[in-house]
Design goal:
The chain is an alpha/beta fold. It is built from 6 helices and 7 strands. Strand 2, helix 1 and strand 3 form a beta-alpha-beta unit. Helix 1 packs across helix 6. The protein starts with 8 loop residues before the first strand and ends with a helix.
Length: 211
């Protein structure tokens, strides 16, 4: 194996309705506060969450030496390697935070995947207009995106006119890329993470009911 991948971190639930393989964003790994909170909230909705670190992140955790993420094709290979470990006992969904969601969205046609979830999709780098949504027109399954309204990687205003056949956007009030709202909003990051998990749970229910 050309890369060193972590063991899967599993948030078990007593009566799971589905399994979600969840990848981290570019700058923080599977054990980050955001990823832990999100996984806990999803588990509260009877979603069994499997998290893992991409190899570049695991190297940083092991050595303390930070490096840039691998190129997208390699990240996809690593994600597929984890996907192929998933047993077929539960309906399978994939997704991620930011970069992790972009990788997952490129695997929408992978056998067994019911839908993809993005928690803060990186539509473009902040203040740049190189968009990362060209593959959205050819998605093989639904892509559900929970996005902060103020996300510098794709704001509500920027995306108002955008439409893709298989993409559903759910806006989190006043959230940024990490779902942090401003104090004046009266909301907390924890509340927005909980709302994103509720949205995910509702959409999983819809997909399962439609089967």
């Amino acid at each position: 194996m050309r890369w060193h991948l972590t063991d899967i971190i599993i948030n078990n639930v007593s009566e799971p309705k589905a399994r979600l393989l969840l990848a981290h964003g570019a700058g923080a790994g599977a054990q980050s506060e955001f990823m832990q909170q999100l996984a806990q909230q999803l588990a509260a909705h009877n979603i069994e969450v499997w998290r893992f670190n991409f190899a570049y992140m695991q190297r940083f955790i092991d050595s303390g030496k930070r490096s840039l993420p691998a190129k997208m094709p390699l990240l996809q290979q690593e994600f597929i390697h984890q996907l192929d470990k998933c047993p077929a006992d539960l309906a399978l969904f994939i997704g991620g935070k930011s970069m992790g969601s972009r990788v997952a969205s490129l695997l929408s046609s992978h056998p067994g995947v019911e839908a993809v979830f993005a928690f803060g999709y990186p539509f473009h780098p902040p203040k740049k207009h190189s968009w990362r949504a060209e593959h959205f027109a050819a998605l093989a399954c639904p892509l559900f995106i929970a996005q902060g309204e103020r996300d510098a990687f794709g704001t509500k205003t920027e995306l108002a006119a955008m439409q893709w056949p298989k993409v559903v956007l759910h806006w989190l009030t006043d959230g940024d890329h990490d779902f942090k709202p401003r104090v004046k909003s009266g909301l907390t990051q924890q509340q927005l993470i909980a709302q994103a998990a509720q949205f995910c749970s509702r959409k999983i229910d819809e997909v399962l009911l439609a089967k």
